[in-house]
Every structure is written in C-alpha cells, then in structure tokens.
Amino acid sequence: MIKTDILIIGAGPTGLFAVFEAGLLKLKCHLIDALPQAGGQCSEIYPKKPIYDIPGFPEILADDLTKNLLEQCKQFEPGFTLGERAETIEKQEDGSFIVTTNKGTKHQAPIVAIAGGLGSFEPRKPLINNIESFEDKGVEYFIKDPEKYRNKRVVISGGGDSALDWSIFLSDIASEVTLIHRRNEFRGALDSVDKVQELKNSGKINLITPAEVIGIVGEHHVKAVVVSQAEHIEKEYEVECDHFIPLFGLSPKLGPIANWGLEIEKNAIKVNNALDYQTNIPGIFAIGDVNTYPGKLKLILCGFHEATLMCQAAYQILNPGKKYVLKYTTVSGIDGFDGSRKEAPKAVVKAIN
Amino acid sequence: MEQDVNIKIIDRNGVAHAILAPTDMAMNLMEVVRSYELAPEGTIGICGGMAMCASCQCYVLSDTKLPDMQDDEEAMLSEAFYVKENSRLGCQIQITPEMEGLEVELAPES
C-alpha cells in the first residue's frame, strides 16, 4: 500500500504543479498516470509544439514545460505510479480513500486530487474485427519491454513517430521488422524517417507502403497478418509474424473515473469553483482540464491556479483549525523533503567610506 | 448578419443541423461544432486544433471549394480510421465567406 497526503490522478502539468504547491505546505504527493511518462497531453500529443500562454514564458515547448515542472517539484519527492490507470476508489472508515489501479496497485490518502485532463489515454485500435481476441496474444498497442521481441518477427503499423522510432529500435532486437503504412510518406521527425530509409536499404526493415493490415491470422496466437497493398494493382497477402503492434496514437477517455459517484457534466467533473475545486464528494478534488464550472477555461495556466487553491483547502482538511498564513517563496525560501534548501541570497550591508 | 455563413452539419447520430457560422471570429469548423455542442465535449478537438488527433474528422458533402490540405492534415488523415475520399479535418477548415453552403458530416468517434 502506497500512502501519501495527496493522491494526484494524472501527471500532466496541473498535477505536477500541485506537487510543488503541496510541498510548500509540507504535504507529500503521489501521482498515478496511465501513460508511461509524466507530462500528460504535453508529452503524449504535442511534445514538440510551442505554447505561448504560460505566464513568464513567451514561448516554451510542451516537452520543456514538463521537464521544468518536474525540476520545480523534484525536492518534494513525489512518488509515481506510471503506466497504470486508476480504476476504483473506496472510502475508508477513517475518511481516507484507497485508489486501486488496473494492475492492482493500491494507494491510500486522505485527499484525492483528480488532475486527469481529458481522461486516461487509451490506444486507438485499428478497425480489424478480430483484433481484440488477439490482445496479449501477439497484438500489443504499447511496447513496454522490448526484450519480449528478441528474435521474434514483428509487424508494426502506423506512420508517426512512435511507429518509426520503435521500428528503428526493434530492428536490432527482433529477427524481422516489417513496417506497414497507408502512405509512402511518414509524419515523424526527419532523422527518424532517414534512419528508416537507411535500414530499409540495408534490408533490416521491410517496408510495405501504401498498405494496410486488414486481418489477423492465428489460432491461439498471432501467426500472420493480412496485408492489403494498393500500389499499381491492389493485392492481398499474408505476412507471417509473431507480433503485430499497431501504433496509431492514443485517445483520451474519462474511463473508470466516470463511475466514482462524482457529478459529471459534459465529460468533466463538476466542482465548487467559488471555494476550493472540491467535487460533490468531500475530500475529492478535481483540477485542470478534467473539471468544469461556470466560465471554465481549459488552459494550463488555469490548472495551475486551481491546483494552488486545492492545496490550501487540502491543508485545512488535514490540519483543521490550524492557524495559517500564506508565505511567499521569495521570503521563506523552499525546504525540500530531501533536505535541500533554496532561498533568496541575503542582502549585503556594507558601508561606503 | 452579412459576415455569417450558412453551413449544414450532420452530427454523429445522423441529425442535420443548419448553422450560422461567423466569419469574423477566426473560427474553424471544429470550433463551430464545439460552440454549437454538436458533439460531446471531450470527443472532438482533443488536440485543440493542431491536426494531431483526427477527432474532428468530417466528410465534405457539398462541392464547396475548400483550402488545400497541408502536409500535417494529410499525414494525420493517413493514420486516422474511417477515412474516405472526402475526409477532412474540421480544425483545418477556416470559416470564411467562401464556406457559404458548406455541408459536412462528422466522422464516427475513434
């Protein structure tokens, strides 16, 4: 059981900033995210795109914003459960909550802050009618452990960065890598495209374009995929393989959170924005893109504000009746949970003779 | 209002909506769909309009002259599902006076 003060669901910009604000109040945080890395949409959908409305940053790449937020909250030592989706929540007699992920990891905290953006990212599955029956039997939508593919024959489909990058990576591990894409053109970073071209020329990657996987063959495990190729004349044939990895990106779904008894409106969680961004269940907050209230704007900067007020309210719940005054970091500095201290340099007082 | 254009949008349930869309708000078709709530929030415009998610894919039914497809839109459509000959991404279609009479159908959610 992982125990913490504030359990944050979603490790996007809002969740990461909440760690910092909580840390200033000496509250410890743990984050759960369905993606294998922190950053949420910023790292999953548009890492290389610039954002122009982060206060104090005329321009910052989404990826860099994530890195900065991780750096900013690092001394507060957040815990992470990545690559797991928060599945159920159970209120305990002492008022705390136990949140269990799809992998069975249990987390306990008196405060839960849902910073889940548009929901957890689920793989976009190609429209192949029997694909679901081969899931985990040769069909995988994520690559978690590349070693699994050692000396195996792998078919990857897709035309973006992940399809290119994994084809390159697996070309050294798998016995055979076939990359199938609907067009001759790829969308990925130029050097990845060049690298795949090189590997194709040297025979380390079989490239089949413009083509599509339209079927899967096998009994208990993938044996081959059916490919429809449309160059010159249309033809259909089988490509034998041990694994089929469709990489068509991810799309967010609100998912299990929708069944937690929270008030939902327009695929978002209703909160009290006049006070503290708490939901209809006391002790559960919702901050960032996942919440809604009159006048809501889905902006990162609004998520930061909401995270800050949420942490204050969490502090009050955890320390009822305790006198509290807001401290400025410039005045009080930052004491990390790791023993580090950051503070403004002292003014130098020196006489001029 | 002369700066508004008439467009017709068939939602994912097959219901047709006659819409007046403003040409002076720098809106694109995806944003028009969202502002009229013709598809549930969170199911359209997920990437915000960067041509990076295809959640605003639609089929163009009228012969309205549309802006040419840029590389990123073409690339995204080549990875999307339910793509047809007349598929476009709503976020890449700006509402201009030339869009008068445009008719589109929203592609299924995927």
Summary, kept brief:
Chain A has 353 residues and is of the alpha/beta class.
The fourth-level CATH homologous superfamily of the largest domain in chain A is FAD/NAD(P)-binding domain
Task: Report the principal-axis shape of chain B.
Answer: globular
Question: What oligomeric assembly is this protein in?
Answer: heterodimer
Q: How much helix is in the residues of chain A?
A: 10-25%
Largest chain-chain contact? A-B, 26 and 20 residues
Overall number of domains of chain B: 1
Walk me through the topology.
The complex is a heterodimer of chains A (353) and B (110).
Chain A: E1 2-3, E2 6-9, H1 13-24, E3 29-33, H2 41-44, E4 50-51, E5 60-61, H3 62-73, E6 79-82, E7 86-91, E8 97-101, E9 106-109, E10 111-114, E11 120-123, E12 153-157, H4 161-170, E13 176-180, H5 190-201, E14 206-208, E15 211-218, E16 222-229, E17 235-240, E18 243-246, E19 250-253, E20 264-265, E21 268-270, E22 284-286, E23 291-292, H6 300-318, H7 329-332, E24 334-335, E25 341-342
Parallel strand pairs in A: 1-9, 2-3, 2-10, 3-6, 10-22, 12-13, 12-18, 13-14, 21-23
Antiparallel strand pairs in A: 4-5, 7-8, 8-9, 11-19, 15-16, 16-17, 20-21, 24-25
Chain B: E1 4-10, E2 16-22, H1 29-35, E3 57-60, H2 71-77, E4 87-89, E5 103-106
Parallel strand pairs in B: 1-5
Antiparallel strand pairs in B: 1-2, 3-4, 3-5
Could you describe the 3D structure shown?
The complex is a heterodimer of chains A (353) and B (110). Chain A has helices spanning 13-24, 41-44, 62-73, 161-170, 190-201, 300-318, 329-332; strands at 2-3, 6-9, 29-33, 50-51, 60-61, 79-82, 86-91, 97-101, 106-109, 111-114, 120-123, 153-157, 176-180, 206-208, 211-218, 222-229, 235-240, 243-246, 250-253, 264-265, 268-270, 284-286, 291-292, 334-335, 341-342. By secondary structure, chain A is α/β, with parallel strands linked by helices. A 5-stranded parallel sheet of chain A has the order 6-3-2-10-22, covered by helices on one side. The radius of gyration of chain A is 24 Å and the shape is globular. Chain A starts with a strand and ends in an 11-residue tail after the last strand. Chain B is α+β, with helices and mostly antiparallel strands. Chain B has helices spanning 29-35, 71-77, and strands spanning 4-10, 16-22, 57-60, 87-89, 103-106. In chain B, strand 1 and strand 2 (16-22) form a beta hairpin. The A-B interface holds A 41, 45-46, 49, 118-119, 124, 126-127, 158-160, 181-183, 185-187, 248-249, 251-252, 254, 266-268 and B 40-43, 46-47, 50, 52-53, 55, 71-72, 74-76, 78-79, 81-82, 110. Chain A: It comes from Bizionia arctica. Chain A: It catalyses: 2 reduced [2Fe-2S]-[ferredoxin] + NADP(+) + H(+) = 2 oxidized [2Fe-2S]-[ferredoxin] + NADPH. Chain A: InterPro entries: FAD/NAD-bd_sf, FAD/NAD-binding_dom, Fd--NADP_Rdtase_type_2, Ferredoxin-NADP_redctase_2.
